[in-house]
Design a protein that fits this description.
single chain, 439 residues, alpha/beta, 9-stranded mixed sheet, 15 helices, globular, binds zinc ion
């Protein structure tokens, strides 16, 4: 047998491929050549493979990296700044004044901290909405993380780009600048129907179609948003977008915590993707997205943490656990959102929600090598009857041992390979001093 040469070989783990058949390899091996997955199978199927770098999974889980479909990464700067307050007090007295002090450097350093936290807890790709997005993109690039990022657009002037016309220009510049990047891609990101006039939303939608890039928007997050739209337009937020032909498979709708049956039908009919953010929705008492109904209709739903001010971490393992349990108690049905479904939401379905499922989200030959290894040799993971159950209900982000993004080893033995964790934390600690007056 001719030997086959890989750059990295991961062996001695249970491979959860998350392919269409949920194929699983016991005592599995994954071969990586350059930035791509070159082979995956059982040890006996993979005997021909050798590599200079061999990673022993120690009997743990080898699976695709997790995909965080909605966050505001730089809000790590506001982690725990203010909690347990009415929404408007929280926003007006704490978050908005602190955000007014942001600049490009703070956003860059806050995003680097988010990347560190995400990679150490097994997330390999995130979708971000924030200000100073050029610096968000730069941080993801430096960290070696895959990211879909966009500059938040709204009716009032932005501290980054000024008037909205400049916001569209800024977005187009980002698209041009990052077009060839292997890790960072750009989305157009109007904040929400309550902060964006119909004209703004129309221009944003056209940009999305013309550049063939996703449109990311907060949609139907709270009851008060729905009431505002009903007062102003006589339509729900989803109905308002549908009536103006602003829904489609290019749209990622974040939250969708307050939906009518008609809204669900519209999301299905227009093949809109949804980002479900259970912990943020719970913490801000926004509502419970009707995820079981959306899934029943075939709507693609990914998982997201939202920003650190309303979560207060970026650990998708915690988010999976919360999502699976929230819908059981909300529906009175312990069979909804089973572990296998939730694990797909945080991997392949998250990738699909971002329009990246041809690239990432599963361990299949030819896809980009975004792979994590979870160490299951721990008291809280012993014994293991059902690997998917453990990933959703028992594992924590801190159980992630190894992370590979685009074929690059970025976390090894629970340590960041290319970032200085101590320096990143020290930088944000210094920045946080300025925000302390709003705590
Ligand atoms: Zn958000």
């Amino acid at each position: 047998m001719h030997p086959k040469q890989a750059d990295i070989l991961i062996k001695n783990g249970i491979v959860l491929t998350m392919d269409p058949d949920n194929t699983r390899f016991e005592a599995g091996v994954v071969a990586i050549c350059k930035d791509k997955i070159a082979g995956a199978g059982t040890a006996s199927q993979m005997t021909a493979w050798q590599a200079a770098k061999v990673i022993d999974a120690g009997g743990g889980i080898i699976m695709p990296g997790l995909v965080n479909t909605h966050t505001h990464a730089a809000m790590t700067c506001f982690r725990g700044l203010a909690d347990d307050l009415p929404l408007m007090t929280w926003l007006n007295d704490h978050i908005f004044p602190a955000e007014a002090m942001l600049d490009a450097d703070k956003v860059y350093k806050g995003t680097l901290l988010a990347c560190a936290e995400m990679m150490l807890s097994g997330t390999t790709c995130f979708c971000d909405m924030y200000l100073f997005t050029g610096d968000v993109a730069r941080a993801a690039h430096v960290a070696g993380m895959r990211a879909l990022v966009g500059e938040v657009l709204y009716d009032f002037p932005s501290p980054n780009y000024g008037p909205i016309e400049k916001g569209f220009e800024y977005t187009e510049q980002l698209v041009a600048q990052w077009r060839e990047d292997p890790l960072v891609s750009i989305a157009v990101e109007p904040h929400s129907p309550y902060l964006c006039a119909p004209d703004l939303l129309q221009v944003a939608f056209n940009l999305s179609i013309n550049h063939a890039i996703p449109l990311v928007i907060h949609l139907s997050e709270t009851r008060s948003e729905v009431e505002q739209l009903m007062d102003k337009y006589g339509q729900t937020p989803v109905g308002f977008l549908a009536a103006r032909d602003l829904l489609g498979p290019n749209v990622l709708a974040c939250h969708c915590a307050v939906l009518t049956d008609a809204d669900i039908d519209l999301l299905q009919a227009h093949r809109v993707n949804v980002s479900h953010n259970p912990e943020s929705n719970m913490k801000l008492a926004s509502g419970i997205a009707p995820v079981p109904q959306l899934l029943e209709k075939g709507v693609c739903v990914g998982l997201g943490t939202d920003g650190c001010a309303s979560n207060n971490n970026l650990d998708l393992f915690a988010e999976m656990d919360t999502a699976a349990k929230l819908h059981k108690v909300a529906s009175g049905d312990p069979t909804v959102l089973d572990a296998a479904t939730v694990l797909r939401m945080s991997t392949i379905d998250g990738a699909r929600a971002l329009g990246m499922d041809a690239l990432i989200g599963s361990i299949e030959i030819g896809k980009q090598a975004d792979i994590i290894v979870v160490d299951t040799h721990k008291p809280h993971l012993t014994p293991m009857y059902h690997p998917a159950s453990h990933m959703v209900y028992a594992a924590r982000g801190s159980d992630v041992d190894t992370v590979i993004i685009n074929g690059d080893l970025v976390v090894e033995n629970r340590q960041l390979v290319r970032l200085d964790t101590q320096q990143i934390m020290a930088d944000v600690l210094r920045i946080a001093e300025a925000f302390r007056k709003y705590a």
